[in-house]
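Hi there, hope your week has been kind to you so far. No rush at all, and the record is pasted right below.
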Amino acid sequence: MRPMMKELKSTQPALHLEEEEIKRLKEIAKELRIWIIRMIQQAGSGHPGGSLSAIDILTVLYFNTMRHRAQEPEWPLRDRFILSKGHGVPALYAVLAKSGYFPMEELLTLRKTNSLLQGHPVVNTVPGIEASTGSLGQGLSIAQGIALASKMDGSLYRVYCMIGDGESQEGQIWETAMSAPKFSLDNLVVFLDYNKGQIDGHVHQIMDLEPLVEKWTAFNWHVQEIDGHDIAKILSALDKTKGNVGKPHLIIAHTVKGKGVSFMENNIDWHGKAPNPEEAERAIKEIEKIEIN
């Protein structure tokens, strides 16, 4: 009995810390959901659906997993993140601002004339943006190039990338799917934000991607499939990428377009439409009621 009791004692602090960390990340994601609604409403245009589906993953990356320094954006040893689905940039701007790359108030200038924060990521303009993206399919190729450069230089940084499901209908995505394993890029971790919707309708109706797991596995990737809104599962999936060497990593994250706002969830109309002031107020009230446990 004593060894068992000793083991329980030793695991309790770790479990407590893990629970506290998950709670902390959930609270950040909740706050940033509100900012996403605010900035898109202020802009009068933007993409709330795919930004809300991505924010939990970006929160885990920027506030738990990635090595980065807001006060030193060009730190050579930083991990890199490429948002290939560039239209989801409100989520990326939100985590960058919360991390301290620029003031939170700047978020409300989204898409305004002369604002740093345009409708798609622009490199060398906004601190923390690693690549200009928006032409779908190209971001993953950029991420592969950076990961290959890291390998060639003997660097230790990792490269994280998020692609969209509609974006995955682009041929360039599959060129990278074929070439990244050739170079054994196990420092490349790709999230597929699988929210099942694109501007023209539901993904399976436009150009079905399935069977995704079998396809990417056949291309010789290390593939996982998770709930993209479950913080614990996101953390676990990222942890597993560190123990699998020799292959690039794909995490298929099943998400909900417009997650957190009832009238936006799984509603294709909210792919690229800004809420009016009344809709934004209603959305924010719903998000504020989300219980963190």
